Amino acid sequence: MKSTEESESLFASHEKIHPRFVLGFFSRLKILSGVVLLGLYYAMPWVQWDGQQAILFDLPARQFHIFSLTFWPQDLIYLAFLLIVAAMTLFFFTSLAGRLWCGFACPQTIWTDAYLWMERLVEGNRAKQIKLDNAPMSFRKFRIKATKHSLWIVFALLTGFTFVGYFTPIQDLSQKIVNFQLGEWETFWLFFYSFAIYGMAGWMREQVCMYMCPYARFQSAMFDKNTMIIAYDEKRGEERGTRKRSDKNYKDKGLGDCIDCTLCVQVCPTGIDIRDGLQYQCISCSACIDACNQIMGKVGYPQGLIRYTTENRMNGKITKILRPRIFVYASILVLILVGIGYGIATRSLVEVDVIRDRNSLFSETYEGLIENVYRLRVMNLDKQAHIYDVNVTGIEGLTLLKEDDIAIEAGSVITLSVRLTADPEHLPKRSTTVLFHLVAQDDSELTITEEARFLGPFIRH
């Protein structure tokens, strides 16, 4: 039993990682990806389309505008399918190319890279950052840190402002900020999203990927021996060791190509050593590949000691890119995308619900006709107002009586009562199917048909 003076820590305090910047083929691709994705994020709310914001999720009006398309709450089924598409796309690319999403397109990675760039801009390279962090507090250190965090906060506020701009017209939002007229929810989400970006990209960084993101935990379920991964060629690299650049007989001394410079560790944003094998913390950013290739070039060794490869290829086996799971994911993706496209292309911009009057099954008029009463709930999903004509078929001599014209503003719903009368001689049974047809007066293609039941007495002919 341990004495009270002995203690054992079960938690290692977090040490800040200072990733070294390296410029190579993959890092250039990553920079390009970040510039494009961030550019789209910040620019799209300002793009106008048909006189309105191209992408706007107008929650108060329950309208979701995406260029020329307008979606309503009834269209949430498309959102569900889009989430399935996103998941299947992630599975497809993970099975094919590993954590490609994490390394080159994940918002956490993109914004963290932006914050790292601002940190290097203010504090300098990796060595200068470490020296500054280890130095005692001084006016110079306070000034540099304050400048860096000021840039971080401004960038976070810009990000939060843009986020809210997808839900409130961004031009109106700008005027509200200038005039100090922001609403409560707009203020909340602006600062909440800004705080989240500042905290996760500026402070937490790799901890989000390692401890908060579930993808790192279940990625192994999508990996197989043919999945592209970043790997260190242990057979070629070991044993590690330093040597003179002019030493051409290093293999006779039992040394491999790895000169143990540790640059692959220094450039890693999660602080792992890729030479220890595949680890869930690896986000496949490829920085270690660029760093190692540069060192191999300087010492005159072949590149590719750390490279994109597969487990099968590392073991001298054939890599099968086209395999059953790839076809399954691709097939599901294509089917869902075709279904979504077809559904959007053929969806009706007018909807109608026909509800029978539940107070009575039917009634008989003074003329001896059978009458049914219905309530029509009509929604105009188009961007402009329409007047609709309505007619009913299904019974010979069926007559429609309505009180008001069906004139509906864009995005509005009206409810009106209608009456149907029919000669009992034309009713073959107690319940007969009738069809309500609505068509816009100014657009014959804007039409919908809804089925209902007409009830009457049973008459033996």
Description:
The protein is elongated and about 110 Å long. Helix 2 runs antiparallel to helix 15 and helix 4 packs antiparallel against helix 6. The longest helix is centred in the first third of the chain and has 26 residues. Helices cover 41% and strands 20% of the residues. The termini are far apart.
List the helices and strands and how they pair.
Layout: H1 25-43, E1 48-49, E2 52-53, E3 55-58, E4 63-66, E5 69-71, H2 76-97, H3 100-104, H4 107-123, H5 126-134, H6 139-164, H7 170-178, H8 184-204, H9 206-212, H10 215-218, E6 229-232, H11 234-237, H12 263-266, H13 287-299, E7 306-309, H14 311-314, H15 324-346, E8 350-356, E9 363-364, E10 370-380, E11 386-393, E12 399-402, E13 406-408, E14 413-422, E15 431-440, E16 443-455
Antiparallel strand pairs: 1-2, 3-4, 4-5, 6-7, 8-10, 9-10, 10-14, 11-13, 11-15, 12-14, 15-16
Helix pairs in contact: 1-4, 2-15, 4-6, 4-8, 6-8
Give a brief description:
The chain has 461 residues and is α+β, with helices and mostly antiparallel strands.
